[in-house]
Amino acid sequence: MTGRGVLDGKVALVTGAARGVGAGIARAFAKEGARVAVLDLDAAGAEAMAAELEEHAPAIGLGCDIRDSAQVDASVARVVERFGTVDILVNNAMASAQSRFEDATDADIDLALDTGPKATYYFMRACFPHLKGTLEEGGGRIINLRSASDPGGLAGYGAYVAAKAGVGGLTRVAAREWGRHGITVNNLAPFVLTEGAKAHFDERPDELKGVLRHLSVPRAGDAESDVGRAAVFLAGPDASYVTGCTLTVDGGGTFFS
Ligand SMILES: NC(=O)c1ccc[n+]([C@@H]2O[C@H](COP(=O)([O-])OP(=O)(O)OC[C@H]3O[C@@H](n4cnc5c(N)ncnc54)[C@H](O)[C@@H]3O)[C@@H](O)[C@H]2O)c1
């Protein structure tokens, strides 16, 4: 499928795209003609997703632990070697553990901060030379996954919320610094019942009912047709003047102000 999508020929690197929200974004990008690099700790899952995407456009699946900056740099180099550049970076992968504030272990805190703001910083830094363009010609796009739990606060998720607040900060600073290079940097804050989200709600079915009731659009989002399409907008030609913002795709669950 060439010559028909709004991302035709673009190179997108999506972390944590073996499943969940990342997989939805990768599918939406590939259907718009982007060549997608699927990165995940689950190397076999990344390769399987890339094989699926090949139906639409060339793709590559790579195993990568985003907590390790050497692996991040090596993965970005592999993508550039294969596709020539990186035009779109999506920092989606993240892992965290739930605990009461006072019970969080060092490992719990490290997991959220290492896979959240630290990994996001590593990828933004590694991809910058490839994303960098000019004000006139335009440059690359960065989309960082944030969460409505960051402005709202979410009991049981101290390290996760701190990590997402950090990701929001990185987005705003890079938007300020890199706009002159034609790079836009934005956040997406989704609500999708992925495996990651289900792990939380499976133990609290009543809480899920309450969350769904509270939404302005009272249904869970879809990783591809809701979040993926919003990512296509932020990555595509219509969003070149949109930067530093958080686009919520959560059925009106949260209004950032
Ligand atoms: N699902 C939601 O409703 C929701 C809400 C708010 C924010 N988010 C954010 O959206 C993003 C995706 O969420 P999801 O629900 O799809 O998550 P998920 O847990 O279902 O999937 C996360 C993916 O990241 C990968 N991953 C985890 N640790 C990794 C590591 N160290 N290195 C490389 N890959 C790693 C996993 O293997 C998995 O494929 C996350 O940043 C999450 O915080 C999701």
Question: What does this protein structure show overall?
Answer:
The protein has 257 residues and is of the alpha/beta class. It has one domain: NAD(P)-binding Rossmann-like Domain (Rossmann fold). 46% of the residues lie in helices and 14% in strands. The protein is built from 9 helices and 7 strands. It has a 7-stranded parallel beta sheet with strand order 3-2-1-4-5-6-7, sandwiched between helices. α4 links the parallel β4 and β5. α1 packs across α9, α3 runs parallel beside α4 and α4 runs parallel beside α6. The chain is globular and about 45 Å long. The N and C termini lie far apart (40 Å). 48% of the residues are buried. It binds nicotinamide-adenine-dinucleotide. The site of nicotinamide-adenine-dinucleotide (NAD) has 28 residues, from α1, β6 and α7.
Q: What's the short version?
A:
The protein has nine helices and seven strands. It is of the alpha/beta class.
List strands and helices in order, with pairings.
Layout: E1 11-15, H1 20-31, E2 35-40, H2 43-53, E3 59-63, H3 69-83, E4 88-91, H4 106-131, E5 141-145, H5 149-152, H6 158-178, E6 184-190, H7 195-201, H8 205-214, H9 223-235, E7 246-249
Parallel strand pairs: 1-2, 1-4, 2-3, 4-5, 5-6, 6-7
Bound molecules: nicotinamide-adenine-dinucleotide.
Nicotinamide-adenine-dinucleotide (NAD) is lined by residues 16, 18-22, 40-42, 64-67, 92-95, 115, 145, 147, 189-192, 194-197.
